[in-house]
Amino acid sequence: MQMIRKIIPLALVMILINLVLPWWGFILLALNSSWVCNNSKDSILISAWASVLSWVPLLIYFNLNGGDILFNRVSQMMGLLHPLLLILSSGIIAALLGGLAGLSGYYVKEIFYENKN
Amino acid sequence: MRPIAKAGLSLTILFTLAFVLNNSLGDIPPLGKFLSPYTGYASLVNSDKLPSGELNLDSLIEPVEVVWDTLRIPHIFAKNEHDLYFMQGYVMAFDRLWQMEFQTHAASGRLSEIVGEKAKGYDQFQRRIGMVYGAKNTLEVLKQDEEYYPNLLAFTEGINTYINSLSTIEHPLEYKILNYSPELWTPLKTCILLKSMAWMLTGRSTDLAYTRIANDFGMDALEELFPIFPKEYDPIIPRNTPFNFDPIELNSPRKLYQSHGDLSQFLPQPPEAIGSNNWAINGKRSKSGNPILSNDPHLGLNLPSIWYMMHLNSPNLNVMGVTIPGAPGIILGFNDNISWGATNGYDDVMDWYDITFKDSTQSEYKYKNKWYPTTKVIEEIKIKDQSAFYDTVTYTHHGPVVWDHLNQTPALGKSQVRLGVRQTAEGRALRWLAHDASNEMRALYMVNHAENYIEFVNALETYTCPGQNFVYADINGNIAIWHSGNQPAKWDGQGMLIMDGNDPRYDWQAIIPHSQKPHILNPKRGYVSSANQHVTDEDYPYFLSSFFWMSYRASQINQQLDQLKSADVDDMKQLQFNNINGKAKNVLPVLLNILQSEKLSDDANQWLITMKDWDYKNTKLSTEASFFDKWREKIEYETWADEFGEDDNQYLWPYFNQLDEMIRFQPASKWFDNQNTPKKETLVEICYITFNQTVSELNALDPTKREWQNFQGTDILHIAKIPGMGRIDLQTAGGSDIINATRLRQGPSWRLVIEMDDELLQPYGIYPGGQSGYPGSKHYDDYINDWVDEKFYELPFGKSANEIEGSYLLCR
Fold first, then answer.
1. CB B352 within 8 A of CB B261
2. With an 8 Å Cβ cutoff, are B32 and A24 in contact?
3. Sorting pLDDT into bands at 50, 70 and 90, what band is A89?
């Protein structure tokens, strides 16, 4: 529950930042998620899920609202059998980048703690 | 590991991954950018939604109304020509921006900028044939045309206004897939686009193949197998039509120059089915007494479609039809008074000259036995993610030297690299009509405005290349056909073989005067027609080409039209879908007669009975059509492969009408003998072998696969061959050399039937595609099913915006 409370605001800020910055904007936020996390696992999970949430619901919304033909064609182009797989793969990429950024951010945080100690 | 090391490693992986996902890898789009819902493909959802209400466009002088009808055809109503062409550019770019730009990039040899090194050979070839050189020559003429040029500028401004209105996120899908951005449009790009159309339609060049056959088999064999006038042909201008003029006198060589032939590779040849039909009947043959015109140009079929339908209206113009995205005006269509259509003329306007250079610097070349200076152009081919490649192209008065010794320019794709330093004193130059300064856009502009026959003919005088058979009908009851374009006046056989670049008698000495071009107005037979066949009989004083399409389609059209005494629009539509296979009709009775049932297996006998009962129609469900097609292919192979090989980069096989004549009249022809066996084969042996082979191959197929619609079928691929963006396995009827000339990758690219009723025009049209170029739109391919189902759409036409139903936009 506590985790969800962190994921949702982070996802919302990611959505906002993605409207302004290039596609990789959400990675910058994910890098900073470690400041609200106590361990590396949390940091990875929170960043990954927030990233997924900033991408996947929007993709599903587009797919259902006028995007069915496009999603079908793009899935075929990418050799995926169904638009759901396309959305899933996109989610995996977002999760991978977000999670990795969360971890990196946590390690950076550790450097600060190490210096403090 | 220390935290700093862990952080360093982890950040390195993260940034590397982000960097990789931000860039394309070979053919894979930049996945991060492309899959992100904020910047990728998904951000384009609903981008095909038509603008409605009011749109503010600063460049407009007066308000313009645009109505998109239910077929999504834009109808533009402007109060002056500037605004009309501005809006045409804007609306066209809205639907087809990527296609327009990609086609010009491809034509001008700039694909490597987009797809990388694999296109280098292609780009180099496009540069060497002088595509842009010809376009620049044309642009110079356009700039002098004070009346027309402003229209092209307005059109360009319209396109650029649209491009500038787009943010990077709004760039069409293919830009995202291929990871690049649109450039601003220029008048030169429009010229390049028209030159690439000229290449598509006049690029068929058999000079090298014929030269090789003449050298290796003798001139007699060439004349026998590739006759300029075959025994049977049905010319566009009916036989015995007198040509009452004094032809230009031409200086021809007494003895024909013999090139050693082997300097260049074959040009990529347009596929067999590129051809077209058009005809018009007059009141004598129509039920209503009005002329009816019909046209269906057969081209390579792609998505987005080569054509875009539009209706343009201004105070002095009301014209509708199709144009190529990127070209202003209407190319094929109708206005309030006239309608017109085209089939490819097939004049030989592409000739090759052997060039002798003084030395390997290629600074001087021999002409009239003297040395003349060449000019050189350095072509910079920019390559994505690599340093640019430079190619020096030498120009003679004939044209660019496309091939020179040692380092042949590859025709397509092969990665032969030219060295910067010349190592040769021999070359082969290209003389191509599309290199000439010309003004086709003015010609089409005049055709769009033409109100009667005289104005139409005057308009065609300006038309240069690609030469077309323009069919014409008007509301005053006239029908006509004009073989238009600047055909060089040639002596008999000129340009059939590679020519001597030194001897001026081989140069193009004159252009056929407009009044001497083959044409016919209101012939007695009550119709005019063309299907890429011979233009005239042998009485016409100039040599036009050594290649015209066989008359199978033309004869069928004429036979059908001869029978129609009171035709209506539906009869004309029906005729476009006529599936009679003229080849089969000629040869099948002879072939089947050879086969004796006692010498055949049960399976073969069954096919023999089936084939004897065939009505010679390539309908969708016909299995006989599939059988015949396969059998014909095998007979051709058995006849020609032993002499002319399988590699079509060496020789050409004679066209089917030659084999057709041999089957019917010379069954013992020496060409039937297989050179690789001691035995002397005739048609009889070939007939048995190939029939039995065909039986086993067809019987090995699943029954539904034997149906013609599945055996041949049609695939309409995306222009850049991006998977998933095309439509494949369409179940079509028809075939090559059949009026309904639908094939695997080519077919009727636009169908028009129009009755020229002076009270109310009745136009019907369709093309295999859709108006939108956006692959996510239902309008991307929404005409295709109806096209396959052999339907036409009634085209809404009128004089004001309120006559057209649909989505309305006011621009000011």
1. no
2. yes
3. very high
Judge residue B32's burial from the number of C-beta atoms within 10 Å of its C-beta, 0-12 exposed, 13-18 middle, 19 or more buried.
Answer: buried
CA–CA min distance B773, chain A (Å): 12
Q: Is the dihedral angle over the CA atoms B51, B56, B61, B62 positive or is it negative?
A: positive
- Rounded to whole angstroms, the Cα distance separating B525 from B391 reads 55
Report d(CA B439, CA B551) in Å as an integer.
Answer: 31
Is B447 within 8 Å of B163 (Cβ atoms)? no
* B315-337 CB burial, b ≥16 within 10 A, e <16: eebbbbbbbbbbbbbbbbbbbeb
pTM: predicted TM-score of the whole model, two decimal places: 0.94
Q: Answer whether B38 touches A (CB < 8 Å).
A: yes
Res B413 pLDDT > 80: no
Which residues lie below 8 Å from residue B50, measured CB to CB, with a gap of 6+?
B68, B72, B807, B809
Query: B340 — phi, psi (to 5°)?
Result: -150, 155
Which residues face B808 on adjacent strands? B67
Q: Residue-wise over B42-59: b if at least 16 C-beta within 10 A, else e?
A: bbbbebbebeeeebebee
Q: How far is A5 from chain B (nearest CA, A)?
A: 24
One-letter amino acid at B629 equals D
pLDDT in tens, B180-202: 999 999 999 999 999 999 998 98
Range of the domain at A32: 2-116
The whole-number average pLDDT for the span B650-669 is 92
Residue from B406, B410, B464 nearest B440 by CA: B464
ipTM field: 0.95
Residue B273 has pLDDT above 70, yes or no: no
- Please, what is the end-to-end C-alpha distance for chain A in angstroms? 31
> Is A103 close to B177, i.e. CB distance below 8 A?
no
Place of tokens 């010609």: B443
* B45–A62 C-beta distance less than 8 A: yes
> Per-residue b/e over A58-97, b at no fewer than 16 CB within 10 Å?
bbbebbeebbebbbbbbbbbbebeebeebbeebbebbbbb
**Residue B166 tokens, joined:** 């787009």
Q: Could you tell me which of B354, B738, B334 has the C-alpha nearest to residue B557?
A: B738
Q: Which residues contact B578 (CB under 8 A, 6 or more apart)?
A: B556, B560, B738, B739, B740
pLDDT band at residue B270, thresholds of 50, 70 and 90? low
Distance, CA of B793 to CA of B429 (rounded, Å): 47
Kindly list the residues from chain B whose CB atom is less than 8 angstroms away from the CB atom of residue A86: 35
User: If pLDDT is split at 50, 70 and 90, which confidence band does B419 have?
Assistant: very low
Domains, in order of start, for chain B: 587-711 (1.10.1400)
Ramachandran category for residue B326: left, alpha or beta (phi over 0 → left; psi -120 to 50 → alpha): left
How buried is B360 (Cβ within 10 angstroms: 0-12 exposed, 13-18 middle, 19+ buried)?
middle
* Nearest of B296, B250, B271 to residue B487 by alpha carbon: B250
Residue B760 has what pLDDT? Answer: 86
H-helix or E-strand spanning residue B575: helix B569-576
CB–CB of A69 and B31 under 8 A? no
Residue numbers in A near B6 (CB within 8 A) = 107, 110
Cα–Cα distance between B810 and B66 in angstroms, integer?
6
* Cβ-Cβ contacts under 8 Å for B347 (sequence gap 6 or more): B202, B467, B485, B487, B488, B544, B545
Judged against a pLDDT cut of 70, whether residue B423 lies above it is answered with no
CA distance B111 to chain A (A): 20
- Residue A33 binned pLDDT confidence (cut-offs 50, 70, 90): confident
Letter for the amino acid at B552?
Y
Residue B759: band (very low, low, confident or very high) from pLDDT cuts 50, 70, 90: confident
State the total domains in chain A: 1
Burial of B392 (0-12, 13-18, 19+ CB in 10 A): middle
